[in-house]
Design brief:
mainly alpha; 2 helices; coiled coil
Length: about 120
Amino acid sequence: MFRPRFVFQTRSADRDRQTDQDRRQAIAGVLARQRADVDREMAGLQRRMDDAYQRAAALLANSEAYGERSARDEDEIVAFEASAEAARKRIADLSRQLEMFEAISKLLDEADNAKSQ
């Protein structure tokens, strides 16, 4: 009885390498765009945080002593400080994201170096 020989064929190694490299480059592109987005967000948050602290400091400088300060001034100072603290926390979160992106980029670089050897 006649049996056809089935031989599994793959693409060429060069084509596989190119496909793998294209995938890594696509991921690297996404990481670069996300880094830029995070950098923009951090810069905006930093400006707002600095502004909130400056406004709180100006209010403190122009208002009475703590026990004599108006409730309105005190509420504004607390609001500015809370806003600045929220921005500081978000900046810390974004910094951790950047660290994660850097770790992923390092893995991609290592994969590129391993493939080129």
